[in-house]
Amino acid sequence: MENDSPGSAPDTNRRVTLRDVARLAGVSHQTVSRAINDKGEIDPETRRRVLEVVQRLRYRPSRHARGLVRPDTITIGLVVADVVNPFFPELIAGVIGAADQRGWKVLISTTQDDPGREPELLRSLAGQVDALIGYLYAPDAEIAAAVEGLPLVVMNRSTRHTRFSVVEVDVRTGVRAAVDHLIGRGHRRIGMIDCPVPDPARREALLEAAAAHGVPIAADAIVTVDQTRSGGEAGLARLRETRPDITAILAFNDMVAMGAHRAARRLGLSMPGDVALVGFDGLSFGELLDPPLTTVDIDKRGMGELAVAQAARLLAGETPPAAMAPTALLVRGSA
What we know:
CATH superfamily of the largest domain: Response regulator
Structural class: alpha/beta
Order of helices and strands: HHHHEHEHEHEEHEHEHEHEEHEE
Helix content: 40-55%
Shape: elongated
Distance between the termini: 69 Å
Strand order of the largest sheet: 2-1-3-4-5-11
Number of domains: 3
CATH class of the largest domain: Alpha Beta
Largest sheet: 6 strands, parallel
């Protein structure tokens, strides 16, 4: 039996759900579903009232919501920067494996390393999937406008946007372990090859960990480069030119570290004798370098699994707290 009076408007800081529409329209959620899907056995005036609330709340009915009337397979959209980048295959495998265990499908798309394409891709996928998972770089406001209330899990970034669910990387623990290791090996002049991304967590973690040891890091000991191997080469060359006293370097990720590694070898520098080098990601190719790359390992497959679990909670109407992907230092030959 339908309620006689409408309810209160939902909190605008969270995703609007089908049940929010039902509460405000004063009907059951089954009635909302029938109205949205233009099913029979519903009074025309009730349908009009429901659709008016739908428009007012800017509710976007997902395929999951339509499944209340017509059962359907859950499909997750996954957006990553580059499927060729060796970081992403393990993460993608984690998403696919976790989705497969639930009987879900995964639709994968890539920005081809162009963050400007993210809103367009998100809008395109939003009409085809029940929820989205993204390794994204665009500002929160652009992402929110593109998904229009569809459940979204963002990875490897902190955000205050309450409509997103988050899988963060435990950057501080990993960087602290790297700095502890370098300090323990006698390094007091540490630099960084950083990359221009929205979340400066790795740089902040380095400064914090070094300060805890009483080892200040000067501004000119940190250089910013493109997130590529050639960027890493340029970064190491720049540090050697401006700060030749630096004996240890943390790279933003393993791709950048690989470029720095190659530049060091070309300059005739020994590792870890002349300069110790630490990457971040834990990519398997680091084992093939000579010497092998010391790196902060991210549980990339587990990160994908956590993202699917977050998506499931969103689809169930929950607002889950941020999940945290663990990190651990892999000590190899370069540091």
